[in-house]
Amino acid sequence: MAATAMLQPERPIVHRLPQHKCIDAVRWLPQLSPFDRFAVLAAFDTDSGSSSIEIHSLKPNPLSLQPHSSFSSSSRVSSLRASQFLQKTVVAASTAAGSLHILFSDPADARFESELSVPEEEGLHSVPGSCVDLMDGGVECVTVGEDGRVNLVSIGNSNLSYRRLFDSGGLVSYTAAKWASPVEFATGGYGFSLQWWDQRKPGGPVSQFKANWDQKFCAGIVHSIDIHPSRKHTCLAGGSLGTVFAWDLRWQQQPIILSGAGAGAGAGNTGVQSISESEVWDVQYDRCIKSSATSTRILPAMICSEDGILAVIEQGEEPIELLAEPCAINSFDIDHHNPSDVICSLEWEAVAILTRQ
Where does the chain have alpha helices with state H? Predict the structure, then answer.
């Protein structure tokens, strides 16, 4: 019998909101007041080929998203993050062309008021495809790319400065990144590989994870990483074949597989039914689910996938399906102020907002 149990919640209330553009990524903005809520969307217009980063306000009765402020991006956004910085809201967006945009919004009305960028011609990344993560507090971000470059970008009031922390010369490709502390972060890439970096120890990653996967898993890609603030020794990853796994720095030999084609294989895995067999595009720890998990078990996590599944999974438990769509769910975000609220972007030009009971 499983050692932990998640309370089975009622089905969430779901609002599907058409947007008339492709929504590649979505994030809640830090809440400015109890009465005003905003989300930032990375949008792509297939008719004009134009990309934009847009702030939308959430309006009740009936629930809707209203355009509030917009910025035209130089290229299609590949990764989107939001945080607080010097009493302002800061949005970081990396693009498919390798450029980086840092946008500041006015705390009074959540409108974009200034922008800093590293254009693609400055060589932040040399090939299409990059990912960014913004440090809590917004003072620095890390960008990684399929070209094998790892960059640290410092954010000032009127300028950006960056330095290349590492360059594999294309021997290793990075597809995901996540801060763990002001000096530590994790990256992920091909072959379901993970790396742990510490700025106090330059020269490359201080620890690397590459399990003895079977042949089909060796071609897998890590698309998303999360690290819980109270368990910084554990890295949660989601990627190909519906695979969600954890890497515990204290026991580094084998992955702890939570879902996917490999569930049930390896030490500590329980053979629980997998919720998806396609690409897991986003993964986050779910702070809304109450769990009695011990320090040796993985906390509940939420995932979204290419086959249209939004679900909560926990080690040793049956998955909880929150949403099943006829199209891919490209990204999602759990509201830090109200963890029962989830926003996600649907491939069929729509945003869905879920409220859990």
Answer: 215-218
